[in-house]
Structure formats: C-alpha cells, structure tokens
Amino acid sequence: MVRDSASSEDSPSLQNVLDALDDPDCRAILRVTTEPMTANELTDTCDIPTSTLYRKLELLSNASLVREQDTINPGGGRTTRYKRDFDDVTISMTEEDDFSVTVERPPRKADERLADIWSTMGDEL
Q1: Are 59 and 20 contacting, i.e. CB atoms less than 8 angstroms apart?
Q2: Of 9, 61, 62, 95, which one's alpha carbon is 20 to 30 angstroms from that of 25?
Q3: Over the stretch 85-123, which tens digit does the pLDDT of each residue have?
Q4: pLDDT, tens only, 66-76
Q5: CATH code for position 100
Q6: Where in the sequence is the domain holding 53, given as residue range(s)?
Q7: Using an 8 Å Cβ cutoff, are 4 and 67 in contact?
Q8: Is residue 12 packed enough to be buried (19+ CB in 10 Å), middle (13-18) or exposed (0-12)?
Q9: Residues with Cβ within 8 Å of residue 118, at least 6 apart in sequence
Q10: Pairing outcome for strands 78-84 and 37-38
Q11: DSSP 3-state assignment of 37?
Q12: Which Gene3D superfamilies match (predicted)?
C-alpha cells in the first residue's frame, strides 16, 4: 500500500523528490492526477502496467507528491484514488551550500482533512 503523504508533517527528502521527478512514468502520473484517479484509470491513461504503477506511486508517495483518497463503498470495501498533492516544488541552495527542497501544498478543505483522518483510521483497523 502506498503511504499517505498528506499525514506526514515531515518535508520530503531532496533525493526522494529528485528520484520521483527524474522518472518519466512518475511525471506522466503527476500530469494526469490533477483530479483523483484510481489505479485502473492511471494504468489505462498512462499506459503503465499495474505492477509498475504501484512502484511509481510508492516513489511519488515517498516524495510527498501524491496522496491517497479512500472512499468507502456502500456495498462494502473501499476505492482508493490518487491525486497530485503539491502546487509547487522548489529546490534551492542554502547559505551552507546544501540543497533543500520545499513542497507547497494546496489548502485542504475540512471534508478533505476529515477524509484523510478516516483513511488513516481505516488503515489501523
């Protein structure tokens, strides 16, 4: 399962962000996830095999560039959708000549924050 980047308060590591952005499949996923999409939709849209897709989603999640949104289905089970989770990524150099990364995120509405909490609770059950 892909880690929920939305619940992470830590900034992603520079290397994780660079690894994700250097990957053509990850960039393709980021281009189409302006709206939430299921893994099946991503597989079809990006023409990426399912097994590869989950590895790419893991890269993006580790870089905190994509987040999961779970929906509970009325008949049971849940559907997971993936959405790009940043407005801007900035890589800069500090005064100590170290590189740093800043990920600016869109503001979350109350229902999105509640959905994140619900998703986290579901994972722990």
Answers
A1: yes
A2: 9
A3: 999 999 999 999 999 999 998 887 777 667 667 666 665
A4: 999 888 888 88
A5: 1.10.10.10
A6: 5-124
A7: yes
A8: buried
A9: 70, 72
A10: antiparallel
A11: strand
A12: Winged helix-like DNA-binding domain superfamily/Winged helix DNA-binding domain
Site of tokens 């890589």: 91
Total structural domains in the chain? Answer: 1
Contacts from 102-105 at CB under 8 Å and sequence distance 24+? 102/11, 103/11, 103/12, 103/17, 103/64, 103/65
Lowest mean pLDDT among 35-39, 54-58, 69-73: 69-73
Are 115 and 25 in contact by the 8 Å Cβ rule? The answer is: no
Residues whose CB falls within 8 Å of the CB of residue 27, separated by 6 or more in sequence, listed in order: 21
Q: Is residue 59 predicted with pLDDT exceeding 60? A: yes
| C-alpha distances in Å from residue 29, one per residue of 57, 58, 79, 106 | 8, 12, 18, 18
Beta-carbon contacts of residue 89 (< 8 Å; ≥ 6 apart): 17, 21, 65, 101, 102, 103, 104
DSSP string, 53-109: HHHHHHHHHHTT-EEEEEEE-TTSSEEEEEEE--SEEEEEE-TTS-EEEEEE-PPPP
